[in-house]
Amino acid sequence: MNILPGNMRFGAGQPVKRLEDQRLLTGKGQFIDDKPEEGALWLHVLRSPHAHAKIVSIDTKAAAAMADVEAVYTGADLVAEDIGTLPTLLVFPRPDGSPMTVPPRRLLAHEIVRFAGEPVAAVVAKSRVAALSAAEAIAIEYKVLPSVVDPVAATKPGAPVVWAEAPDNIVAAMSYGDAAAVEAAFAKAAHVVSLDLVSQRLAPSAMEPRSTIAEVEKKTGRLMLHVQSQTPGSTRDILAEAVLKRPKESVRVLVGDIGGGFGQKTSLYPEDGIVAYAAVKLNRKVRWRGDRSDEFLGGTHGRDLTSTAELALDAKGRAQAYRVRSVGGTGAYVSGTGALIPLVLGPFVQTGVYDLPLVHYETKAVMTHTAPVGAYRGAGRPEAVFIVERLMDAAARQIGMDPRAIRKVNYVKPAQMPYTNAVGQVYDSGAFAHMLERASKLADWDGFAARKKAAKKKGLFYGRGLTSYIEWTGGTVHTEKVSLHATAEGRVILNSGTQAMGQGLQTSFSQMVAAALGIPIDKIDVVQGDTDLAIGFGSVGSRSLFVGGTAAVVSASDLIAKAREKASHMLEASIEDIEYRDGSLTVVGTDKRIGLFEIAKKETGGRLSVDSEGQVDGPTWPNGTHICEVEVDPQTGVSRVVRYTTVDDVGVAINPMLVTGQVHGGVAQGIGQALYEGVAYDAEGQLLTASYQDYCIPRADDIPPIQVTLDGSAPCRTNPLGAKGCGESGAIGGPPCITNGVMDALSELGIKSITTPLSPLKVWQAIQEAKAARG
Question: Could you give the CA distance from residue 295 to residue 117 in angstroms, rounded to a whole number?
Answer without folding.
Answer: 10
